[in-house]
Design goal:
Blueprint: H1 2-8, E1 10-14, H2 19-31, E2 36-40, H3 46-55, E3 62-66, H4 71-80, E4 84-86, H5 92-99, E5 104-108, H6 111-120, E6 124-127, H7 134-142, E7 150-152, H8 158-166, E8 172-174, H9 176-179, H10 188-205
Parallel strand pairs: 1-2, 1-8, 2-3, 3-4, 4-5, 5-6, 6-7
Length: about 210
């Protein structure tokens, strides 16, 4: 998973109000060069969206599940075909996913939470909400934790993504600034244009 994060650099986050639109969004992201896609379980029938995307994901593309909170969630997303798990905070899902052999990006914000996420089995730390401190906060965290693979999430637009990657983030998670309203039935053409910009950024740091 760490190799894929280093290679892909961007995790597209799908959080919408329409199951079919979420599936179309995931397929559009794959086609545009975003190879890691996370479907939030807050999306209606999110498990169905994960299953549909997992069934026809191109080679080197992975579908994960986001907003995973409990061991029961871990079991459900694994059955649906999710290949990685993302939590919004320190939850029992981190240890459950690790025990199930699913790579997990554990949500954390403070230094103590970073250590706890790693101890629970997270392969990378989802720094969330990263917008609360911005790139300067990532830089401060990386001073005592230079070897921790951080994935900042929250308010990450193209410019901020570049700043995080320059500061050593292994990848960034991008929701609204990438997906927009596509996962709720919005414009897929506009999504494709935005995705092209993030895919090009990823190649700069690959």
């Amino acid at each position: 998973m760490l190799d894929l994060l280093r290679a892909q650099r961007v995790v597209g986050i799908i959080r919408g109000q329409d199951t079919d639109a979420a599936i179309d969004t995931g397929r559009a992201l794959f086609a545009a060069g975003i190879g890691l896609v996370e479907v939030s379980l807050t999306t209606p029938r999110g498990l169905d969206a994960i299953a549909a995307l997992a069934a026809d994901a191109p080679p080197q593309c992975l579908v994960g599940a986001g907003t995973v909170l409990t061991p029961a969630d871990v079991a459900a997303v694994a059955a649906a075909g999710a290949r990685f798990v993302v939590t919004p905070a320190l939850t029992d899902a981190i240890a459950a996913a690790a025990a199930a052999g699913l790579p997990v990006l554990g949500g954390a914000l403070t230094p103590s939470e970073v250590l706890s996420a790693l101890r629970e089995g997270a392969v990378a730390v989802k720094l969330f909400p990263a917008s609360s401190g911005g790139p300067a906060y990532l830089k401060a965290l990386r001073d005592p934790f230079p070897h921790v693979p951080f994935v900042p999430v929250g308010g990450v637009d193209l410019a901020v993504a570049r700043a995080y990657l320059r500061l050593g983030a292994i990848a960034v998670g991008v929701g609204g600034p990438l997906v927009g309203d596509a996962a709720s039935g919005g414009d897929l053409g506009a999504l494709t244009e935005r995705a092209a910009g993030f895919a090009a950024l990823a190649k700069e740091f690959a």
